[in-house]
Amino acid sequence: MKRVCLALLSIVVLTGCARTHPRPKPPTLIVNPATSTAGRIVRVNPATRYVIVSYAFGNVPAADRRLNVYRQGLKVAEIKINEFRRDTNIVADIVAGECQVGDEVRSD
């Protein structure tokens, strides 16, 4: 009788351990490259109406291009890029509106 109970107990334990529990799959990551060029204003000269905009490497726009300036999601100004640049910093003339340090510059 002991052997029968021991055998049944062993079968129950082993079958319980043999079950595999399905593991949740990790979420699939979707990576979309940024297609817009966004910069930040790092210096403003209101007297001569120009700004210096800093960009990431490879995202510096071409000269004579008009861009919009946004503050907290609202358009506050328009600038025109000129030919003066150093590394990732460019100089732009303020065409319309007012700019502040930290404003975002986008091409939309």
Can you describe this structure in just a few lines?
The chain is built from one helix and six strands. With 108 residues, it is α+β, with helices and mostly antiparallel strands.
Number of helices: 1
Q: Give the uncertain stretches in residue-range form.
A: none
Strand content of the residues, in percent? 35-45%
Helical residue percent band: 10-25%
Strand order of the largest sheet: 1-2-5-4-3-6
SSE series: HEEEEEE
Count of DSSP strands: 6
Radius of gyration: 31 Å
- Envelope shape: rod-shaped
Distance between the termini: 84 Å
The pLDDT mean sits at 84
Main sheet summary? 6 strands, antiparallel, barrel
Task: Tell me the structural class.
Answer: alpha+beta
Structure in words:
- By secondary structure, this protein is α+β, with helices and mostly antiparallel strands.
- The chain has one helix and six strands, in the order αββββββ.
- The protein has one helix at residues 2-18, and strands at residues 39-45, 50-54, 66-71, 74-86, 89-97, 104-106.
- The N and C termini lie far apart (84 Å).
- The model has no long low-confidence stretch (mean pLDDT 84).
